């Protein structure tokens, strides 16, 4: 549908494909640029942070036609100049890792996802099962709090678990007041501690 709309309206497509290797349950990543008629009009944005766990490096890249990348490089030169050379070399080395690396990456994150979902099941909080990335949206409508921010503050202060109020992910924030977002990219022992804290002090 997106490809058809782009071609019909003669517009460019910008895609963020940072989680292309963190997928679950047989989900497959399909880059928009690979679809018929989209190679010339797609700007694919990606980076090292998620796949190689180097968030602090802030090293990313784009894939597009020479005509498009030429214009992008001119703007980029005035904004950031360049990423540190050693980090660029490390990125080149990382991209040469074998397929087994990406398979193991997805397996480890799947285990973490299943751990956080088990915790949410134990405390009877409904959620959307993620098919990719490392976040879970959970529904907190059953709790007696005015909004997600109030519930988030309660979790941090009284239980010691930090989450993100999901209202910030909605164009109309009030529609996200019944949801919070968990990030499960942390260590397994941290997830275990999260479960223990929830079970020992469940919110009302």
TrEMBL record:
Record's keyword annotation contains Transferase: yes
Enzyme class: transferase
Top-rank taxon, per record: Bacteria
UniProt signal peptide: none
InterPro entries: Aminotransferase_I/II_large, Kynurenine-oxoglutarate_AT, NHTrfase_class1_PyrdxlP-BS, PyrdxlP-dep_Trfase, PyrdxlP-dep_Trfase_major, PyrdxlP-dep_Trfase_small
A family per Pfam: Aminotran_1_2
GO cellular component, one term: cytoplasm
Molecular function in Gene Ontology: kynurenine-oxoglutarate transaminase activity; pyridoxal phosphate binding
Alphabetical UniProt keywords: Aminotransferase, Pyridoxal phosphate, Transferase
Listed CDD domains: AAT_like
Segments forming domain Aminotransferase class I/classII large: 2-192
E.C. code: 2.6.1.-
Cofactor names: pyridoxal 5'-phosphate
Family note: Belongs to the class-I pyridoxal-phosphate-dependent aminotransferase family.
The protein's name: Aminotransferase
Organism the protein comes from: Trichormus variabilis (strain ATCC 29413 / PCC 7937) (Anabaena variabilis)
């Amino acid at each position: 549908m997106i490809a058809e709309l782009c071609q019909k309206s003669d517009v460019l497509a910008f895609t963020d494909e940072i989680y292309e290797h963190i997928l679950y349950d047989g989900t497959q990543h399909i880059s928009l640029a690979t679809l018929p008629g989209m190679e010339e009009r797609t700007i694919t944005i990606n980076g090292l942070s998620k796949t190689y766990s180097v968030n602090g490096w802030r090293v990313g890249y784009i894939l597009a036609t020479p005509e498009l990348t030429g214009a992008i490089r001119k703007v980029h030169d005035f904004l950031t100049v360049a990423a540190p050379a050693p980090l660029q070399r490390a990125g080149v080395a990382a991209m040469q890792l074998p397929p087994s690396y990406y398979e193991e990456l997805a397996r480890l994150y799947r285990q973490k996802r299943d751990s956080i979902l088990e915790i949410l099941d134990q405390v009877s909080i409904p959620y959307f099962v993620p098919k990719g990335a490392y976040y879970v949206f959970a529904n907190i409508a059953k709790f007696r709090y005015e909004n997600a921010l109030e519930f988030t503050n309660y979790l941090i202060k009284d239980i010691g678990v930090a989450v993100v109020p999901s209202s910030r992910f909605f164009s109309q924030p009030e529609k996200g007041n019944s949801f919070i977002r968990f990030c499960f990219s942390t260590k397994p022992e941290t997830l275990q501690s999260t479960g223990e804290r929830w079970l020992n002090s469940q919110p009302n």
